[in-house]
Every structure is written in C-alpha cells, then in structure tokens.
Amino acid sequence: MNKPLLAGSTLALAAVVGTTSMVAMATTQEDADQAQQLIKELATTLQGELKGALKEGGPVNAVSVCEEKAPAIATNLSEQSGWEVGRTSLKTRNAARNTPDEWERNVLEQFESRKANGESPKGMSYASVVDTDDGKVYRYMQAIPTQQVCLACHGKDLPPDLVEAIDKAYPEDEARGYSVGDIRGAFTLSKPL
C-alpha cells in the first residue's frame, strides 16, 4: 500500500511499509531521514556549483554544470551512501539520465495533483516499499519547487545564446516554460532493504 510519508507520523509510516511493526516503522523513518539528508547534500552542492557558474559566466556557463557536474555529484553520493540518488521530471532536460520510470511518473503526477489541490510543493514527498525481482526496495521522492533562480535556464523567455547552448547540450530538452512555484521535478532515491 502506498501512502504519502509524513515525517514523524506513525500511522503514515505503518501504511508505507504495510505493517504495524515498530521495527519496520523505525527502519522506514530512518530511511526517510537518510534520504532527506542526501537530498539536502545534493541540493546544496548543486546550488553552490550553479551559483558559481552563474556568477562566473551567466546562464550559458551554468549549462555545463547541469550537464557534467550534476550527474557526477549524484553518482558520488550514490557511491558513498549505498543509495541510488538522482533527479527526474515529467519534462526532462536530459532524457537519457532523468526520464522517470513508471513508479516515479506516478509519484510526479501525484505531486502535480496535490499541488493543484492547494498543497505547496515545498517539502512535498512520497515514500514506499516496492517489491522488485531482487527483493524489497525503499523508494523516496521529494518535489523540487521552481525558484526564481531556476527561471534563468528553465523559464519562458530565454536569451538566444542560452537557447543555443541548451539545444546543443540537450537536443530533446522539454524543461522550459516554468514559473516560480511550479514543480520542476523531484529528487528520487532508492535503496535495497
């Protein structure tokens, strides 16, 4: 049974793992805490890299950060933590790396529905334990709200030199036309149980 994870909610944690076992609930809360810490680390590191690139050479310079450094940061965190760490979106910029799988697409659509019903995307998350051919996997996603700084490369009116750089790096880009407060995508994490 998949239910939204509400930090600190015993009922939500029991629903996520499908049991009322206190051990299972504690493990799931620990997993959620670890996922949130990894998201914080990924977001902070990536934001630092992007701010530096923007300051150094503007949005065109920031394209290479997203193309090269963002995947490297996620890979490094994955290797260090034992989690699979990444980002995904319904409108991908890098389809080869960030296209959502079926579970992720369902969660992203759920996020959009929750936002349409008035919930703020800030802190919006979802977790569940999923049965796979290799055993149970804990999966966690947290929405990425579009902020003003995001519009430099993901907004509606991009300068021609930036459009050219994005098109060159990402020929199948769909990640434009956002406004502040939109759900840009989500951090997505998983680990075997």
Q: What does this protein look like?
A:
The protein has helices at 10-17, 22-81, 95-98, 102-116, 151-154, 160-169, and strands spanning 84-88, 125-132, 135-145, 183-192. Residues 1-25 have low confidence and may be disordered. Strand 2 and strand 3 (135-145) form a beta hairpin. With 193 residues, it is of the alpha+beta class. The protein is built from 6 helices and 4 strands; from the N terminus they run ααβααββααβ.
Number of strands: 4
Strand proportion, as a percent range, falls in 15-25%
Q: What radius of gyration results from the CA coordinates? A: 17 Å
Q: Structural class of the helix and strand makeup? A: alpha+beta
Nearest-integer average pLDDT:
86
Order of helices and strands: HHEHHEEHHE
Low-confidence stretches: 1-25
Kindly list the characteristics that best describe this protein.
193 residues, four-stranded antiparallel beta sheet, disordered N terminus
Quick rundown:
The protein is of the alpha+beta class and 193 residues long. The protein has helices spanning 10-17, 22-81, 95-98, 102-116, 151-154, 160-169, and strands spanning 84-88, 125-132, 135-145, 183-192. The chain has 6 helices and 4 strands.
Topology overview:
Elements: H1 10-17, H2 22-81, E1 84-88, H3 95-98, H4 102-116, E2 125-132, E3 135-145, H5 151-154, H6 160-169, E4 183-192
Antiparallel strand pairs: 1-4, 2-3, 3-4
Helix pairs in contact: 1-2, 2-6
